[in-house]
């Protein structure tokens, strides 16, 4: 029975991805940026529903930019979960752009891509992010740089926060957590780390009991007198508290 339910969810998920590609190809060119953002948010909410995942929002999502969201990184689901809670432009590793289907959807959602191994590209990205914040956009980054196991957070990298410092824009910490909807215990089904395959992680998620994705927003803050590294450590500790609360 569990396999049949997971198979049904997978078919619905694939159909929803196909629908997203159709919207991007045929509808997006005629939509304003705000209309595109609204479409992405609705599509993301529907994707979670097809996967058997409900959404719970704690705290106050940003009403408008400029603001940079910083969150812990657990799963391939983190991006649609955050889009479902509040549309934002993600900064993602360049590999995602080449992923079949997913890359097309990520690009349509406004993702900015960075080659993490290149210092020159990191500097280019910081400038692009600064310009986006100065246009009053809402950006989102995963400062861990890769997915963790959901138990302990990895250290935050400070370089991308330079864009918020340069633009004098606030940063809002966000704690992400997946929980068993019945027991409230942390669910590790959506994890995607190490040698795990994306297909394996998706199938494990679809086979799991109902999952609740929790997005916990903390209050936005400015760097103030703190240097970038001190601010980064403070944000790391705040995100850690939010995801556990």
TrEMBL record:
Keywords: Acyltransferase, Lipid biosynthesis, Lipid metabolism, Transferase
Domain Phospholipid/glycerol acyltransferase: 67-179
Signal peptide per UniProt: none
SUPFAM superfamilies xref list: Glycerol-3-phosphate (1)-acyltransferase
One function term, GO molecular function aspect: acyltransferase activity
Highest taxon in the source lineage: Bacteria
InterPro entries named in the record: Plipid/glycerol_acylTrfase
Pathway terms, separated by semicolons: Lipid metabolism
PANTHER family per record: 1-ACYL-SN-GLYCEROL-3-PHOSPHATE ACYLTRANSFERASE, 1-ACYL-SN-GLYCEROL-3-PHOSPHATE ACYLTRANSFERASE-RELATED
Protein name as it appears in the record: 1-acyl-sn-glycerol-3-phosphate acyltransferase
Organism in which the protein naturally occurs: Acidovorax benzenivorans
């Amino acid at each position: 029975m569990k396999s049949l339910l997971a198979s049904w969810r997978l078919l619905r998920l694939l159909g929803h991805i196909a629908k997203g590609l159709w919207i991007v190809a045929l509808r997006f060119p005629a939509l304003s940026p705000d209309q595109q953002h609204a479409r992405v948010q609705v599509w993301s909410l529907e994707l979670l529903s097809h996967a058997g995942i409900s959404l719970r929002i704690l705290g106050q999502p940003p009403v408008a930019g400029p603001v940079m969201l910083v969150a812990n990184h657990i799963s391939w689901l983190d991006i649609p979960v955050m889009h479902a809670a509040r549309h934002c432009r993600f900064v993602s590793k360049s590999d995602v752009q080449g992923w079949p289907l997913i890359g097309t959807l990520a690009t349509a959602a406004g993702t900015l891509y960075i080659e993490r191994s290149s210092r020159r590209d990191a500097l280019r990205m910081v400038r692009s992010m600064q310009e986006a914040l100065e246009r009053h956009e809402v950006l989102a980054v995963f400062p861990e740089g890769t997915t963790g196991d959901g138990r302990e957070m990895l250290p935050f990298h400070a370089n991308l926060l330079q864009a918020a410092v340069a633009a004098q824009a606030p940063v809002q910490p966000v704690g992400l957590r997946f929980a068993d909807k019945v027991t409230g215990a942390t669910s590790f089904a959506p994890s995607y780390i190490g040698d795990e395959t994306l297909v394996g992680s998706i199938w494990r998620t679809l086979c799991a009991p109902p999952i609740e994705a929790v997005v916990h927003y903390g209050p936005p803050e400015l760097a103030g007198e703190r240097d970038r590294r001190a601010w980064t450590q403070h944000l790391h500790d705040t995100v850690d508290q939010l995801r556990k609360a």
